[in-house]
Fold these 4 entries.
Entry 1:
Amino acid sequence: SSLGVNSSQALIVDLTSSVLTDLTATLAWDVTQTETGGGQYLDTTDTGVIFPDLDLELLPVSYSGGAYTLGSSLGVPGLMSKSTGLDSDNVEHLYFSSGSLNPGLYAFVISNNSGPDWNYGFSYRMDTTVIPEPGTFLLLVLGVIWACGMRRKSR
């Protein structure tokens, strides 16, 4: 994919029936640089040109009236990656394994805050725990009650 100047792209993830327990996501993009030392080294003195300012964040999403609306930041450090200035490079990572995120709609948001269009690659891996539906839980409880009743009858 590619991303233009001052624009964002989002990938919606539906976690309405599960709880997110572990997440790893990586965003990497092309680098424009001058080679020095006979092609062995990259000249990284102008990080503002060489490394565009792309950000990656997981945000809550609401759906209403046929449209998705991004919510505000979750405030969880592992769910946002924004490197700027001397810390800039061409990779952003999200890591989350400290607890769980409530069920709902979420979006991976990739934002370009500088430079021309940039080609990028994005990948993610999620572990979730499925939340049983109330009807499933009710059937389980009724099954246990029935099994206990059958056991009492056989005595």
Entry 2:
Amino acid sequence: RWLATHRTVMLGPECGERSWSVVATELESDALAPIAALESIRFAMTGVAFLVASNVVLALAGHLAVAWIGIALWGLHMGLTQGLLAAMVAGTAPAGLRGTAYGFFNLCSGIAMLAASVLAGELWERLGASFTFYAGIVFSLFALGVLIWREQKA
């Protein structure tokens, strides 16, 4: 939708008429919305797969250089998923409520991160660093399974 809106502004609808190319772009973007949603899910799946790989490497890391590889994989996960999450909020929230939607999304994310950090700290203290990353693998695989299920449903 953004591309179509952007083109409308670029072509100057101030004269009250809309160009055929803008209308075609808007129709095309509406028709392709299910495909874009499916691609977003696949993109998210790729990001979560990098998170699984990161946790595996960090769980097995016996040397600092290996840990840096795990950190790099985690960075790829963050790069692939964080912008996508923001775009998903923007794409689903009505224009007048986007600020509220971002705020609510960040509130929920913060609460989830707090709970995950407390759990990770407890696992680390009681069972060690490797077990914490193994638990991360389990949670990440669960998230990946949900994404696969969602893709099949779409």
Entry 3:
Amino acid sequence: SLRLSLEGDQQGMAAGRRQSTIGIDACTGVGQQLFAVGSQGHILGTLCACIGDERALRQGEAELIQALADLIGSALLLNRQREQDNQLLLLDERNTIARELHDSLAQSLSFMKLQIARLQALILQGKDCHAVEAVAEEVMTPLVPVVVTATKRPLP
């Protein structure tokens, strides 16, 4: 029988992963041998191999089980790496969106600053109310979608 026991690392434990045991029968008695499950120097747990007739594992059997333990370790580490890559891609996408939003806001604010300067000049020149209102409307029109976009909350 084989029994696989994986201990979560500190990062895995913080993410809610606990020790998991997958097995057939209990692994006790003579003929029991433990194999490290891991890859690239990272030990993730143990694989316990038991022979039902209480004899020691043969060399070929031990090598085969260690190869299985190594494959399990490689698969687990590849899965962990894939999860980390997905998180990095998500963060990169969020940074790109934030940069684009910042650039859009900066451009809109620069335009509004120019329009306000124009509005102030019209007021100082004593222009009629209709001209001042028209420029004020030009300032406010592009501002509304920018404010709406900036104040939207992301979906959970």
Entry 4:
Amino acid sequence: SRSARIQSRTRLKTMSPIGYKPPRAFAKGKGIALIEILVALVVLTAGLIIVYQPLLGAVTALDDALKRLEARRFAAGKIWQFQEDSFREGRFKAKPPQGVLMGVKTPFEYETRSTALTPEEELYELEFMISWRTGHVMRRVKRTTYISVPHAETG
């Protein structure tokens, strides 16, 4: 019972009107030094950079993959268009040889080169190159395909 009274008195001494008495270091005017705050801030900043750097790399890689996918989709669509036009007209036509296609957020520039592989001009090699800018870097996708053109028989 005596020890309970001593503990009760000790508890009352450490309580303030709002229920908490700060430790003696703060009560005497000693606080956290500015240098301690700056060191803690530097450590926190370094930790955040270490944590978020791989995340930013992943976001950049994902954005590049999406642009590459969009470029391949444009390339496939243009090649299909050249094939359809060639079949419909009965002769190979890769016009216009260059141009710009607008993506979701990025303009894509394309260029075509074609070469007749047979003297009768029934088989063509078509190179389709599409490029775009990511930051300061130019990216490029190149597709090579072969287009056969059916000739109407004369007789």
